[in-house]
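Incident log, structure service

09:12 report received: a user says their structure output differs between two submissions of the same chain.
09:20 pulled the input from the user's history:
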Amino acid sequence: MRVLLVEDDPVLGDGLRAGLELEGLKVDWLTGAEDAIAAIDAGTFDAAILDLGLPDGSGHDVLAAWRREGHNVPVLILTAHDTKANCLETLNGGADDYVVKPVDLDELVARLTALKRRAAGQANNRIVVGQLTLDLTARTGILAERPLDLSSHEFIVLEALADRRAQPVSRATLEERLYGWDEGPESNALEVLIHKIRSKIGRDRIQTVRGVGWRLSA
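09:34 re-ran on a clean worker, output below:
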């Protein structure tokens, strides 16, 4: 799961990014409203965590801009303002969830996973493609009742492919999921990851679509 974090507190922001990435999420962290408004156009995110008090504007304005531009990314508001009026304003303004600081990391991961699940129209935190089942909470995979030994990066790639079912996923999309805005490793790193996944689930289950990317077959 790729998450956009918009939080101006350097200690909290660094802690949230580190904690969420330890849980297997890829986090791109920004500290200002202007950058946050532009960021949605520059990348594909599964969810966003948005602080309301930003140094160059309001999180309410960021949310309004995202929705006005037609971006449907699920948004979780993270704020110190614990008032009913503020909660109602953000939810009515297009937010999907509202959490008051400080927040427990396990709860935050669970809420983000639930937002992603609902956005995809899933009834639970599992993706099933044929005999393959991915548990988004435990970040584990099972193939024909056999547990899969997947690294964090392997799970990210497999989750991205499973999200699209039989539709092809481009290299750019997979690399965004893996590395966000950070510079990735060598150019063949994605091919190496896909080779490793194929060795665990079967070569025919990940098909190469020439000139496009890869797709997962049931």
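09:41 both user submissions now match this output. Likely a transient worker issue. Closing.
09:42 reviewer note: The mean pLDDT is 90. Residues 105-119 form the longest helix (15 residues).
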